[in-house]
Amino acid sequence: MDKLIAKEATGTYNGSYRRRLVEWSLPFVFFIAGLPLGLFTGGYGATQLLTGLTYNHDEPCLLEQVVIFGSILFGILYALFLAYGGRLITRWIGEFLYDRRTGDVSLPVVRSHSLAGKDRVEEMEKELSFLRPYRSLLHAIVLVGSSVYGKASRNSDRDVVLICKKKGYNTVREVVFQKEIDEQFEDRGNNIKMEFTVLNEKLVRDEFRDSSPFSYSLRYGLRLYSDGFLERIESSCKAGLPTRRYIIRALYNGILTQYYGSLKDLSRDIRRAHSFSGACAQRGVCLGHGPAERLLNVIIKMLYITLPVHGYMPLTKTDVVYFAQRVYGDETAAVIEDVVNMVRADVKEISESQYHRLRKLSTGLFLEIVQYAGFSVEIKNLIKDVLCMKRGEYQRIKNPAYRNCIIS
Does a structural domain hold residue 256? Predict the structure, then answer.
């Protein structure tokens, strides 16, 4: 299974072939042009050196052979050096051309606030009254997600982002953590559950600098409180397409492990259940396989990367389905709509047929993201490390962060 997924992720996307052909064309030209030059330079230097060494010798000696071999080696190394320089130039050009697309780009977003009414704002402020003693430690309180844009379902949470000052980050995190623990034991009746995200100043700057999808949520969220910090960040960082740095960071921080891990776990469960002695094979019907929530969630995460690169910035899951129809067509959008509905319903298990549809969708999205990030040595090593994690080959993991995560 790992080999199959790795093969899918490294060689079946036509766009990556074209990109790699362009990236390696200049290094190849530099190598071909540099090899004769390097050999000529090395040969000329060897000739000058041998002229002095063999002045009184009629037959070649071992030292002469070493010098000749060294001149050939010099020529080859010189050509390789030029090829490496050409490779760096193509990477810089590629990043420059991509970053040019990430300038001031107008992406369609929803700006209307369904909670902008005075009664709704007062309701939210009442829910967040536990933060009043800590207001001096906060830069902003922002409501984001579907509830802001009037697209919340019955089971939707209210997502609240707390942007903290430098000295208040740890304190606010502890207060929110205690609040979430208390809510587990409270009967909140018809009140909607609230999900908190606590950010410090650096994290907010990074999100806006990289034009991440989350930065758009902050731009167009409902600000219940702000001291001007968020507005200053907005004015200094133009809205644009997600940068390559953000895409690589997203791969590193979860997409890789969730993508490979979810597919491997589900395929193992399906293989076991549909074997000759498995439960599904015995009953003649698929009983469902899990855990499915990781695969469903990583598909949503990947769509929040691929859709903005195509020029559409979704702020809610409803927007994801709407924009996916424009980008990927009706058939793929129907599968994505099923994913969104399953995420909202908190589905834990899926059928074998659903798994094959979701695997095809997730693999296509993953290949698309890898193409945007550039299939560099860094990305290859990350993929290898994740596969080693899933196989239990922890000693072969090279990334120190992944290795420390396993050890701890």
Answer: yes
| Spatial separation of the C-alpha atoms in residues 328 and 361, rounded to whole Å | 11
Location of structure tokens 């924009």: 323
Q: Integer distance in angstroms from the first to the last C-alpha of the chain?
A: 27
Residue 42 identity: G
- List Cα–Cα distances, 98 to 3, 14, 56, 323, in angstroms: 31, 18, 62, 22
Three-class SS of residue 316?
coil
pLDDT (tens digit per residue) in 102-151: 444 444 444 444 544 555 667 777 788 888 888 888 999 888 887 777 66
Residue 90 CA to residue 86 CA, distance in Å, equals 6
Residues 6+ apart with CB under 8 A from 11: 17
Per-residue pLDDT of 372-406, as tens digits, reads 887 677 777 777 777 777 677 767 777 666 666 55
The answer as to whether 68 is a domain residue is yes
d(CA 58, CA 177): 87
Name the residue range of residue 23's domain: 2-100
User: Within this chain, do residues 62 and 145 fall inside the same structural domain, yes or no?
Assistant: no
Measured CA distances, 373 to 83, 121, 353, 370 (Å):
22, 40, 31, 5
In one letter, which amino acid is 92?
A: W
How many CB atoms are closer than 10 A to CB 355?
22
Give 404-408 contacts, CB < 8 A, sequence gap 24+. Answer: none
Q: Are residues 350 and 265 part of one domain?
A: yes
Q: Residue 329 CA to chain centroid, in angstroms?
A: 23
| Whole-prediction pTM | 0.68
Cis peptide before 60 (omega within 30 of 0): no
